[in-house]
Amino acid sequence: MVQVRAGIAYDCDVLVVGGGIVGLSTAYAISRAAPGTRVTVLEKEAGPARHQTGRNSGVIHSGIYYRPGSLKARYAVKGAAEMVKFCAEYGIAHAVTGKLIVATERAELPRLHALVQRGRENGIPVRELGGAQIGEYEPEVRGLAAIHVGTTGICDFVGVARQLGAASGAEIRYGARVERIDRRPELGVAVRTTGGDVVRGRVLVNCAGLHCDEVARLTGDDPEMRIVPFRGEYYELARPELVRGLVYPVPDPAFPFLGVHLTRGIDGGVHIGPNAVPALAREGYGWGVVRPREVAGTLAWPGSWTLARRHWRYGGGELRRSVSKRAFATAVRRLLPAVDDGDLMRAAAGVRAQAVLRDGTLVDDFLIKEGARAVHVLNAPSPAATASLPIGREVARRALEMLGSV
Q1: DSSP 3-state of 165
Q2: Does residue 6 have a pLDDT over 70?
Q3: Mean pLDDT across 141-158
Q4: E strands, 76-125, in order
C-alpha cells in the first residue's frame, strides 16, 4: 500500500505525470513563475515526447480553425508566435512556411468563407485566392478556391520538448510508469511506480495524454470523460518536389479532425495524412496492436456507442482509406492530381487522445479540471503542441495557486 504519511519529507512540491510537451512545458512554466519550486516529472517511456508530441505532422498551427474565444483559439494564436520565438532562441529547427486551405468542391466554398471570417475574428491575417491563383503557391495543387494563412509553420516538437525539460530544472524520471496514487487532501499525494519507487509531492499535475483519464481515476477524481484513441496513419510522398509547403482540405466542422493534408517537414520530406480510425489500444500504432482490456474499457463507455451511431458513415470512409492505399491516394488526388498509388510510402502512425463525454460528444476544446491537490489536463490533442507554452503557463498557474493554499 502506497501512502502519504504525516512527518514524511516530500520529494517535490509539484509532481507532474507525463513527459510529453505539455507536461514539460508545465514544469518549465513553474520554474519561470516560481523559482525554487521543486518539480519532479514521471514519464513511463525511456525518453520524452514518445507519443502524441513525437508522432504528429510537426505543424505550428495558426489557430484559424478554432471557435473564437475558445482556449484552442486563444492559446494556438498566442502559442504559435511563442513557439517560433522559442525555437529561434534555442536553435531548434523550424520555419514559418504559411499554408493553403483548398476547396475542391462547390459545397466546400461556404465553409472556406466561414474560415476566412473565423480567421479574422481570431486576429489571423488570411489571403483569399481564386482557383487560378493557387498555382502561385503550389503549382501542382488544384482547387476551386483557397485561402493562404501566412502564420502557419513547422518545427521539431521533440526538440522543443527536450529543451523545455532541460531548461525547467525539474527532476525528470524516465521509465517511471505510475502504478498507484494515494491522495490525502490534508497531506498531499504519493505515487508508486511499477519499479517500486514512491514519490511524494504536495500537488499532482496530470499530463498523461493517452492515459490522462486513468491517472485521474487513480487519483480518486471522476474525469467525467474517457479517452477514445484514434489512430492517424501517414504516408510519405516519394516525389516531394510535387509540394512546396503545407496544403490542407477544408475541414468538416462536425469533427475535430482536419482531414488528409500535405506537409513538407523540416527534413524536406512530405508527409500525407493523417486519417482517423479507432485504435485497438491507447498506443495502437497499427492494426496488429490490440489490448483487450483497453478495447473493453472503450466499449464499456456509453459515449463510444453513441459516437459510432452518429458518425458511422464518416468512420466508414476513414476505415476504407486505412486498409486501401488506392482509396487513400484517391483522397489525396482531390488536392494533388499528379499523385499515383506508387508515390505513397507508409510512414509512422500517431494516436490522438480524444476525450469523449458520456453522451457521445467529442470534447472540442482543451479541457483542464481540478481536484483536491490535483490538476488534470484531460483533453489536449492538436493543436496542443503549438499551444504548449500557454497551456503550460495555465496549468502551472493552477498548480501554484493550489500549492499556495495548502
Answers
A1: helix
A2: no
A3: 97
A4: 94-96, 99-103
The pLDDT score that the predictor gives to residue 259 is 80
Residues in contact with 173: Cβ distance below 8 Å, sequence separation at least 6, in sequence order: 40, 41, 42, 43, 193, 197, 199
Residue showing cell 459515449: 303
Interval 94-103: pLDDT, tens: 999 999 999 9
Among residues 34, 285, 161, the alpha carbon closest in space to that of 12 is found at: 34
pLDDT given for residue 221 in this prediction: 98
Contacts of 64 (CB under 8 A, 6+ apart): 101, 115, 118, 119, 122, 124, 126, 149
What pLDDT was estimated at residue 153? 97
At 323, give phi and psi (nearest 5°): -90, -10
User: For 363, which DSSP code?
Assistant: P
User: Which residues contact residue 85 at a Cβ distance below 8 angstroms, ignoring those fewer than 6 apart?
Assistant: none
Residue type, 132: A
C-alpha to C-alpha distance for 308 and 379, rounded to whole angstroms: 20
* Amino acid at position 281, single letter: A
CA distance 293 to 44: 19
Q: Which residues are registered as beta bridge partners of 199?
A: 191
State how far the Cα of 77 lies from the Cα of 390, in Å rounded to an integer. Answer: 10
Residue holding cell 496513419?
Answer: 233
Residue 238, CB half-sphere, CA atoms under 13 Å: how many?
10
Q: Rg for the chain (alpha carbons), in Å? A: 21
What does the pLDDT look like over 235-259, one tens digit per residue? 999 999 999 999 999 988 766 667 8
Residues in the chain: 406
The angle subtended at Cα 300 by Cα 292 and Cα 222, nearest 5°, is 110
